[in-house]
Each structure stands twice: as structure tokens, then as C-alpha cells.
Request: fold
Amino acid sequence: MSAIRRSRIADLLASKEFNRSVDVKGWVRTIRGNKYVNFVHLNDGSTVKNIQIVADTEKFGAEFFKPITTGACIHVVGTLVESQGKGQTCEIQADTIEIYGTADPETYPLQKKGHSLEFLREIAYLRPRTNTFGAIFRIRHNMAYAIHKFFNDKGFYYFHTPIITASDAEGAGSMFQVTTLDQNNLPRTETGAIDYTEDFFGGQTNLTVSGQLEGELGAMALGGIYTFGPTFRAENSNTPRHLAEFWMIEPEVAFNDIIDNMDLAEEFMKYLIQYALDNCQDDIAFLNEMFDKELIERLKFVVKNDFVRLTYTEGVKILEESGHKFEFPVFWGADLQSEHERYLVENHFKCPVILTDYPKEIKSFYMKQNEDGKTVRAMDVLFPKIGEIIGGSERETDYDKLLNRTKELNMNTDPIWWYLDIRKFGTAPHSGFGLGFERLILFITGMANIRDVIPFPRTPNSAEF
Ligand code: 4AD
Ligand code: MG
Reply:
């Protein structure tokens, strides 16, 4: 056994220190050989690139290489040498090879040839081993890190909001219930209703659809906070942009108005995209080459240009006057569909757009009400290829106005008494927004389906792995 430590292949490929002993471990992508020499392309997940292992056939014996097939996991100790071959700077001359695990070519699904993304979804337990998903999941990690860095550098605090809640933060009613009650023998009240006082939490609970309401409590004490956690929506929308379990980032900032909120959202998005361009070059270049030839251009364009800001009313007017045939009708008061959002972004402005001041009927109860009595201080950030990537608003800080709105909407305010109450104790202007993490990753990777940017997607009728 060698005393040297395992090197990451990414570090070796970047190294110029040749003729030293190295130790690598990884999964075989390809192997080919003849009676003189064998070439193994090895990947350890640290980069989209493989390192070439050169092994003398006679030294190991031809039989030795038989179980080393695509997908096998091996441990190689050898010498890092400058490469004579094209396409790589260095390679490893193998001294010893240990086989950790074989992968039977008859049953291992990931053979050399390219596979469709649909097929790879069916084998989601193996797809991180492909170049494509390796690239996507490394980018996903880098974006998570950049999000924490952005907010930490700005003096925001990472505030942990609960996953199990009793409230419906968006008032949309699309929640997964959390219960320990025996579904085959439900306790009943005298009137025959399910008796949730018998349930684990002594009341009805669900998985959170958003950490915002609790996030606002954090902002009312710490100034600037953000959440970054899983959120759950039981909407039966089978689209390339919806998941039943997705991750959301929700900053909430005391004293920010809607303009500050838009400025923060724009700065945040540009920071993340620039971070990806600077730190995920190989992976983005790979995705640009394989899936979306305009990806890098599009990312650079968004960083360089100001987002266009206009009101919902102005946006609807543009759509109505466009003469474009939309699948869903567009009129003042309509909830905009992805096709409308993308028309504004891709056809009309050719630039990211922030729409503000939506009709109150199509937005959540907590948004600050405008003087006109018809609209609220909402903002949606719309991106090319995605449509809505961020939703946010300035919040209603006036206790009576907020209470009135909940009454108009026939909301049960019992589970959110504290949310109303905070308006009585040192209330202050504040704003925030939510960025859908997977929609961000869709944009950064150029992928077309949200199921391909999260390791284990949860969608209607699908919770495997
Ligand atoms: O617009 P939404 O519903 O806003 C909120 O939840 C607010 N509480 C945010 C806030 O102001 N703090 O969701 C925010 C974002 C959307 O813009 C979208 O990017 C993403 O979350 N999103 C989803 N992503 C994947 N699958 C779903 N089903 C999503 N629903 C929303
Ligand atoms: Mg929204």
C-alpha cells in the first residue's frame, strides 16, 4: 500500500508537477487496449474531464483487464507524466491497480453511447455518473455555496424556518398534510369531523409551501435574513418548471421598499450568474457544447444588461397590442402564464423583466396594498427560457389593512395569529422575495426540464429513489 493520499482528478489535470507518484480512485468511463498497452479513462466526479491511465498489458497480464469495464471502480497508484497524446496535458503510468467493484457490461445501464434524458430519469440512481449530470450537480453545489456567500458578505443571517407548519403561507391551499393519525381509524369529533386535537401536534399540520411568514419575524429582529430550504407544493402541475418538492431562497429585509427589493433581486441574480461563469467554466462549457449553444452568451448577456422594470398594467397592454396568438387569453386581471412572461422577455424586450403592481386578486394576502385599491406592491422577475424565476413583494405592515384582506379572502387566521400580531409591535416597512433554486439551475445549465436539475425529482405520480 502506498502512503500517498488520494488526489482529486481535477487537481491532477491542473497540475504541472510531473514525474511524481500519485494515487487516484474513480469510475471507469472507457477502456481500450491491445497486447502492449491499455488506456483507461477514469472519472472521480471532481471534474467533467477524465484522466487517462496508461497500463502495460504484459506487466499486469491481459486477463487482469477483463473485469475492468465501463462503470467499474478502481484504485490506481502510478506516476503522473506529461502526456504525449492530444487532448490531455497529463496522464498516469500505472504501477498498481486495485479493483474495488466491477460493473457487469450485460446489466450496467450506462454504456459508452449517449442516453436520452428521459431514460436517465428512470435510472436516477446512476445518472450522477454521467458527464451531463455530474456537470449539473457540481453547478448546483456551487450555486448553493454562492447564495450563502452573497448573503453572508452582505451581513444577512441564514434563518431556519420550519418545514412542518400549521399555516398556509401562500394561501393557495396546495399543501401536503403531515399526520400520524391512523388513516384506517380516524378519531372523530361529536359532529363527525376528523379530530385533529388527537394528532401529533394537537392540530392540523402540513409541509411548508414557503418560509416567508416566519422569515418576516426574523427580519423584524435581525434586519436582513434569508432562508434556503426545501418547500413543498401539492399542485398537480406536470410542467417542465414545477416540482412538488423544490428548494427556495427567501431573503426578507427590514426597511426595504419595493425598489430596494428589485435592486436586491437584480444584484443577486447577476452575482450568481457571474459566480457560475467564473467558477464552473468546464461544466458550463460542456453543457453549452452538448445542449445549448447559446448558453454562455445568454448568461453573459443577463449579467451585462439592466433588467427592464414595468408594471403589470403596462405589461398586459404590450401583450394585448402584440397581435400574438396566445394559448391562454390575456387581459387585465388575468394571471400571466409562462407563454406571456416569455413573450415579454424573449420577443418584446429581449431582456430580463421585472413586473410590478399586480392586481390584488391574483396575488397573496400579505402584499402591501397600493393607493388605487386594485393593485399590490408585488414583483415578479421574468427570465428568458424560464418565465417567472423570482416572486416577491413589499409586505403589508398595517395591522388593520392586513386583517381586512384576510377577511375579504375568507381566510382562517387562527394559524397565523402571530403573523398579524407582529404588526402591532414595532411594525416597519419590509420586503422580500423567493427564488426557486431549481429554476435558477435550469437557467444556469440551459437544461429544459426541471426534473433534470435536482438529483431526485418529486412530481405527481413519481417519488422513486
Ligand atoms: O412566487 P412564489 O409562490 O412566492 C412565494 O412563495 C413567496 N413566499 C416568496 C417570497 O416573497 N418570500 O414562489 C417563489 C418562486 C417562484 O418564482 C418560482 O421560481 C419558485 O419559487 N417556484 C417553484 N419552483 C419549482 N416548482 C414549483 N412548484 C414552484 N413554485 C414556485
Ligand atoms: Mg409566484
